[in-house]
Specification:
By secondary structure, the protein is α+β, with helices and mostly antiparallel strands. The chain is built from 13 helices and 21 strands. The two termini are 93 Å apart. The mean pLDDT is 82. Strand 18 and strand 19 form a beta hairpin.
């Protein structure tokens, strides 16, 4: 559990974007290609990939190598064999649907195909007679039907009732998702109260409806009307939605569409969750796999130091950190992302020891600390004081043999220095930087910096960091 919490807490915002983007791409692939043969093969390839990972984890070198080759070959096969299917999906889908549309794109139901076909024949004024049996057996009433085990499609229905088709005058019997008979002859009704514009098709539909509980759809050649005949009644249906509802009620699937929609939504949600979980697992296996070790030298940063105290001396200035992480993350580390910070809030005057812990070290997300050297840092602190001290020239070298230095003057003669109390108590003079004697002329003026040793000493505000030296020399015989 602790490891899982650590992995989650180590996620960068870039990692979250990375996982989310690839998960969404995988989810879009499901939305676009579900139900296609290419998608089924892709599922098989995914299972093979899982098998390869198991083989790698078990140390099955040859097996993992063979499965890896099969997966690579399978990816090529999907692109080559199913290129037409992939192209048809992408060409039939607009940009909005590719990027974010999640509406159902499942295969159109049989009833929807029938409804579309019927109204298209009505627009073309192509006569048609379609029978949907109920519980009663219509075989005893129908005559001369030609057996036909054809799967329902719009093209199939239109071709059956095409005027040049020998069986177009007969009825087609649809049961389930198949056309089981074509060219069937139905009994004619003997009713004399029918409108004169109802022809033979309508009388045949009514005759079968009077004898059985079948539902019959008749399409008029003259007017293109779609007429539903059931239970001895004829009804002109002008709306596709109404006809679809009638057919669903007759086939007992009125609530099927609602259940299909719920199932479809659940499948979409499940696909989205699977995409996130799958890509997260792949990301962790890739980003955490093949971890790399790196030794990093990080400077020590001191925080919350009392302004009245000064750091006099430290045991080390940098700390060696042994870091572990994925190769990509290790290579992306920048110096300012790794810091060792020590809190001086509770420190005292004199020597202080600080133990470096994980909390003392700032690391980028995804990087693990494996070791620290040294683990303890010694820090010597002192109280800051201000002290006025005389300035003395630090001469080096020697004058030429025939010259002697007769007069020197330093301005200012004293400077105020700020530093640790213990250090300044042992210092009585502030020296200048080294001044070479061999460069002196007969007389002149030199501007030099003050040499502050140790480096923790500072010139107090108001004092000059440089002094002016005026000198005079003469010949020894004068």
């Amino acid at each position: 559990m602790e490891k899982i919490i650590f992995l989650i807490s180590s996620l960068r915002w870039q990692d979250i974007v990375d996982i989310g983007l690839v998960s969404y791409i995988l989810f879009r692939f499901y939305i676009l290609f579900r139900g296609t043969n290419a998608f089924r093969v892709l599922i098989g390839m995914t299972i093979l990939w899982f098998f390869q990972q198991v083989a790698v984890s078990m140390g099955l070198i040859v097996t993992s190598w063979v499965v890896q080759g099969i997966v690579a070959l399978g990816a090529f096969i999907i692109i080559v064999i199913f290129r037409n299917e992939i192209r048809s999906v992408l060409q039939a889908t607009h940009l909005k649907a590719i990027l974010w549309d999640v509406s159902s794109k499942a295969v159109i139901s049989t009833i929807e195909i029938i409804v579309q076909s019927v109204y298209e024949m009505g627009l073309r004024k192509c006569g048609a007679l379609i029978v949907f049996p109920g519980k009663d057996d219509v075989e005893e009433v129908i005559q001369s039907g030609i057996p036909w085990k054809g799967e329902i499609s719009k093209e199939m229905i239109l071709s059956v009732f095409w005027p040049d088709n020998p069986v177009h005058d007969g009825a087609a019997v649809i049961q389930g998702d198949q056309i089981i008979q074509v060219g069937a002859i139905l009994p004619l009704s003997r009713r004399d109260d029918l409108p004169t514009y109802f022809g033979t098709r309508h009388r045949a539909a009514l005759g079968l409806a009077e004898a059985t509980d079948a539902l019959i759809i008749a399409v008029s050649e003259e007017r293109g009307d779609v007429v539903v005949v059931r239970g001895g009644t004829l009804k002109v249906v002008k709306q596709k939605r109404k006809l679809e509802q009638i057919l669903r009620q007759h086939k007992g699937v009125a609530s099927k569409k609602g259940r299909e929609l719920i199932k479809e939504k659940l499948m979409i949600v499940a696909a989205a969750l699977f995409s996130v979980i799958f890509i997260t697992g792949v990301w962790f296996s890739v980003s955490r796999g093949g971890d790399t070790l790196l030794t990093f030298e990080s400077p020590v940063v001191y925080l919350n130091r009392d302004p009245s105290m000064e750091i006099v001396q430290t045991s080390v200035n940098t700390v060696s950190l042994e870091l572990e992480g994925s190769g990509a993350l290790i290579k992306s580390i920048k110096p300012d992302q790794v810091q060792v910070k020590l809190d001086l809030n509770k420190s005292k005057v004199g020597p202080n020891s600080f133990t470096i812990t994980r909390e003392s070290i700032s690391l980028p997300p995804g990087i693990v600390l494996k070791g620290v050297a040294p683990t303890v840092v010694e820090v010597d602190l002192d109280v800051l004081i201000k002290k006025e001290m005389p300035v003395q020239i630090d001469w080096v070298g020697r004058l030429p043999d025939h010259f002697i230095l007769t007069e020197t003057d330093v301005q200012p003669e004293t400077v105020a220095v700020i530093g640790g109390k213990r250090i300044l108590e042992n210092i009585a003079t502030i020296y200048t930087e080294k001044v070479p004697l061999n460069n002196l002329e007969v007389k002149g003026t030199i501007s030099v910096n003050l040499a502050l040793t140790p480096a923790s000493l500072k010139i107090a505000p108001g004092s000059k960091e440089k002094v002016t030296i005026t000198y005079l020399t003469k010949l020894r015989n004068q």
